[in-house]
Amino acid sequence: MEEWRLKDTSPQGEMMEVKVDLHSEELDSTLGDVGPLIHDRDPKRVNSNLEVMFEDVIAEPPSVRSFDKVWLWSHALFEVSRLWCYRFISLLLAVPVSLAAGLLFAALSCLHIWLIMPCMQLLLINMRWIQTVWASILNIFISPFCTSFGKCCGQIIIHLSNNKTR
Protein backbone atom coordinates (compact mmCIF):
# COMPACT_ATOMS: atom_id res chain seq x y z
CA MET A 1 0.00 0.00 0.00
CA GLU A 2 1.43 3.33 -1.08
CA GLU A 3 0.86 6.20 1.36
CA TRP A 4 1.12 9.88 0.59
CA ARG A 5 1.32 12.62 3.17
CA LEU A 6 0.55 16.15 2.12
CA LYS A 7 1.10 18.90 4.61
CA ASP A 8 -1.41 21.70 4.74
CA THR A 9 0.23 25.12 4.78
CA SER A 10 -2.64 26.72 6.64
CA PRO A 11 -1.95 28.29 10.06
CA GLN A 12 -3.22 25.11 11.73
CA GLY A 13 -0.57 23.05 9.92
CA GLU A 14 -2.74 19.92 9.85
CA MET A 15 -1.31 16.74 8.43
CA MET A 16 -3.60 15.00 5.93
CA GLU A 17 -3.08 11.47 4.67
CA VAL A 18 -4.24 9.71 1.57
CA LYS A 19 -3.79 5.98 1.13
CA VAL A 20 -3.83 4.61 -2.38
CA ASP A 21 -3.12 1.00 -3.32
CA LEU A 22 -0.69 1.20 -6.26
CA HIS A 23 0.65 -2.33 -5.98
CA SER A 24 -1.83 -5.12 -6.54
CA GLU A 25 -1.12 -8.50 -4.95
CA GLU A 26 -2.12 -10.24 -8.19
CA LEU A 27 0.77 -8.59 -10.04
CA ASP A 28 3.28 -9.43 -7.29
CA SER A 29 2.20 -13.08 -7.14
CA THR A 30 2.69 -13.60 -10.89
CA LEU A 31 6.29 -12.41 -10.80
CA GLY A 32 7.67 -15.68 -9.46
CA ASP A 33 11.39 -16.06 -10.12
CA VAL A 34 11.74 -12.82 -12.09
CA GLY A 35 10.90 -10.63 -9.08
CA PRO A 36 14.37 -9.10 -8.61
CA LEU A 37 14.81 -8.51 -12.34
CA ILE A 38 11.58 -6.55 -12.72
CA HIS A 39 12.29 -3.79 -10.16
CA ASP A 40 14.83 -1.82 -12.20
CA ARG A 41 13.31 -1.70 -15.67
CA ASP A 42 15.40 1.26 -16.83
CA PRO A 43 18.94 0.46 -15.62
CA LYS A 44 20.59 2.75 -18.18
CA ARG A 45 18.23 5.64 -17.37
CA VAL A 46 16.99 5.97 -20.94
CA ASN A 47 13.67 7.47 -19.85
CA SER A 48 14.79 9.56 -16.88
CA ASN A 49 13.07 12.58 -18.44
CA LEU A 50 9.66 10.89 -18.01
CA GLU A 51 9.71 10.94 -14.22
CA VAL A 52 6.78 13.33 -13.87
CA MET A 53 5.43 14.11 -10.44
CA PHE A 54 2.22 15.91 -9.53
CA GLU A 55 4.17 18.99 -8.43
CA ASP A 56 5.85 19.16 -11.87
CA VAL A 57 2.48 19.50 -13.60
CA ILE A 58 0.14 21.25 -11.18
CA ALA A 59 1.19 23.91 -8.69
CA GLU A 60 -0.79 26.55 -6.83
CA PRO A 61 0.89 29.80 -5.85
CA PRO A 62 0.40 31.02 -2.28
CA SER A 63 -1.95 33.78 -3.45
CA VAL A 64 -4.47 31.41 -5.06
CA ARG A 65 -5.40 28.17 -3.32
CA SER A 66 -8.13 25.60 -3.70
CA PHE A 67 -9.69 23.71 -0.82
CA ASP A 68 -7.29 21.33 0.93
CA LYS A 69 -9.45 18.28 0.18
CA VAL A 70 -9.61 19.26 -3.51
CA TRP A 71 -5.82 19.48 -3.64
CA LEU A 72 -5.45 16.17 -1.81
CA TRP A 73 -7.89 14.28 -4.03
CA SER A 74 -6.57 15.82 -7.23
CA HIS A 75 -3.09 14.68 -6.24
CA ALA A 76 -4.36 11.17 -5.56
CA LEU A 77 -6.39 11.03 -8.78
CA PHE A 78 -3.46 12.32 -10.82
CA GLU A 79 -1.16 9.59 -9.52
CA VAL A 80 -3.70 6.78 -9.82
CA SER A 81 -4.95 7.82 -13.27
CA ARG A 82 -1.37 8.23 -14.54
CA LEU A 83 -0.45 4.76 -13.30
CA TRP A 84 -3.54 2.90 -14.50
CA CYS A 85 -3.78 4.68 -17.85
CA TYR A 86 -0.15 3.82 -18.49
CA ARG A 87 -0.79 0.20 -17.51
CA PHE A 88 -3.84 -0.01 -19.79
CA ILE A 89 -2.12 1.63 -22.77
CA SER A 90 0.99 -0.52 -22.29
CA LEU A 91 -1.26 -3.60 -22.08
CA LEU A 92 -2.65 -2.72 -25.51
CA LEU A 93 0.55 -1.51 -27.19
CA ALA A 94 3.56 -3.14 -25.48
CA VAL A 95 3.38 -6.53 -27.18
CA PRO A 96 2.73 -5.29 -30.75
CA VAL A 97 5.32 -2.50 -30.50
CA SER A 98 7.87 -4.91 -28.99
CA LEU A 99 7.19 -7.37 -31.81
CA ALA A 100 7.60 -4.64 -34.44
CA ALA A 101 10.79 -3.33 -32.80
CA GLY A 102 12.19 -6.86 -32.58
CA LEU A 103 11.45 -7.49 -36.26
CA LEU A 104 12.97 -4.14 -37.25
CA PHE A 105 16.16 -4.68 -35.24
CA ALA A 106 16.44 -8.25 -36.53
CA ALA A 107 16.13 -7.02 -40.13
CA LEU A 108 18.66 -4.24 -39.54
CA SER A 109 21.08 -6.66 -37.87
CA CYS A 110 20.72 -9.14 -40.71
CA LEU A 111 21.30 -6.42 -43.32
CA HIS A 112 24.30 -5.11 -41.43
CA ILE A 113 25.90 -8.53 -40.89
CA TRP A 114 25.18 -10.15 -44.27
CA LEU A 115 25.08 -7.20 -46.67
CA ILE A 116 26.62 -3.95 -45.47
CA MET A 117 29.77 -5.25 -43.74
CA PRO A 118 30.75 -7.69 -46.55
CA CYS A 119 30.30 -4.87 -49.09
CA MET A 120 32.42 -2.53 -46.94
CA GLN A 121 35.15 -5.17 -46.58
CA LEU A 122 35.08 -5.83 -50.32
CA LEU A 123 35.34 -2.12 -50.99
CA LEU A 124 38.23 -1.72 -48.54
CA ILE A 125 40.09 -4.69 -50.03
CA ASN A 126 39.64 -3.50 -53.62
CA MET A 127 40.40 0.12 -52.81
CA ARG A 128 43.65 -0.56 -50.95
CA TRP A 129 45.65 0.67 -53.98
CA ILE A 130 43.75 4.00 -53.90
CA GLN A 131 44.67 4.39 -50.25
CA THR A 132 48.34 3.75 -51.11
CA VAL A 133 48.30 6.22 -54.03
CA TRP A 134 46.51 8.88 -51.95
CA ALA A 135 49.00 8.50 -49.08
CA SER A 136 51.88 8.87 -51.59
CA ILE A 137 50.32 12.03 -53.08
CA LEU A 138 49.92 13.52 -49.62
CA ASN A 139 53.51 12.66 -48.68
CA ILE A 140 54.94 14.04 -51.95
CA PHE A 141 52.97 17.29 -52.33
CA ILE A 142 51.08 18.27 -49.20
CA SER A 143 53.46 17.18 -46.44
CA PRO A 144 56.48 19.24 -47.64
CA PHE A 145 54.28 22.33 -48.05
CA CYS A 146 52.88 21.97 -44.51
CA THR A 147 56.36 21.30 -43.10
CA SER A 148 57.88 24.39 -44.76
CA PHE A 149 54.91 26.57 -43.76
CA GLY A 150 55.29 25.36 -40.17
CA LYS A 151 59.00 26.22 -40.20
CA CYS A 152 58.28 29.70 -41.59
CA CYS A 153 55.63 30.40 -38.99
CA GLY A 154 57.77 28.85 -36.27
CA GLN A 155 60.23 31.71 -36.56
CA ILE A 156 57.64 34.33 -35.69
CA ILE A 157 58.14 35.65 -32.17
CA ILE A 158 55.63 37.90 -30.47
CA HIS A 159 56.63 40.05 -27.51
CA LEU A 160 53.91 41.63 -25.45
CA SER A 161 54.77 44.63 -23.37
CA ASN A 162 52.75 47.02 -21.34
CA ASN A 163 54.18 50.49 -22.05
CA LYS A 164 52.01 52.97 -20.29
CA THR A 165 53.72 56.26 -19.85
CA ARG A 166 51.96 59.03 -18.01
From TrEMBL:
<dbReference type="GO" id="GO:0000139">
    <property type="term" value="C:Golgi membrane"/>
</dbReference>
<dbReference type="GO" id="GO:0005925">
    <property type="term" value="C:focal adhesion"/>
</dbReference>
<dbReference type="Pfam" id="PF01146">
    <property type="entry name" value="Caveolin"/>
</dbReference>
<protein>
    <recommendedName>
        <fullName>Caveolin</fullName>
    </recommendedName>
</protein>
<dbReference type="InterPro" id="IPR001612">
    <property type="entry name" value="Caveolin"/>
</dbReference>
<dbReference type="GO" id="GO:0042383">
    <property type="term" value="C:sarcolemma"/>
</dbReference>
<dbReference type="GO" id="GO:0030154">
    <property type="term" value="P:cell differentiation"/>
</dbReference>
<keyword id="KW-0472">Membrane</keyword>
<feature type="transmembrane region" description="Helical">
    <location>
        <begin position="91"/>
        <end position="117"/>
    </location>
</feature>
<keyword id="KW-0812">Transmembrane</keyword>
<feature type="transmembrane region" description="Helical">
    <location>
        <begin position="137"/>
        <end position="160"/>
    </location>
</feature>
<keyword id="KW-0333">Golgi apparatus</keyword>
<dbReference type="GO" id="GO:0051480">
    <property type="term" value="P:regulation of cytosolic calcium ion concentration"/>
</dbReference>
<dbReference type="GO" id="GO:0070836">
    <property type="term" value="P:caveola assembly"/>
</dbReference>
<keyword id="KW-1003">Cell membrane</keyword>
<comment type="similarity">
    <text>Belongs to the caveolin family.</text>
</comment>
<keyword id="KW-1133">Transmembrane helix</keyword>
<dbReference type="GO" id="GO:0060090">
    <property type="term" value="F:molecular adaptor activity"/>
</dbReference>
<dbReference type="InterPro" id="IPR018361">
    <property type="entry name" value="Caveolin_CS"/>
</dbReference>
<comment type="function">
    <text>May act as a scaffolding protein within caveolar membranes. Interacts directly with G-protein alpha subunits and can functionally regulate their activity.</text>
</comment>
<dbReference type="GO" id="GO:0005901">
    <property type="term" value="C:caveola"/>
</dbReference>
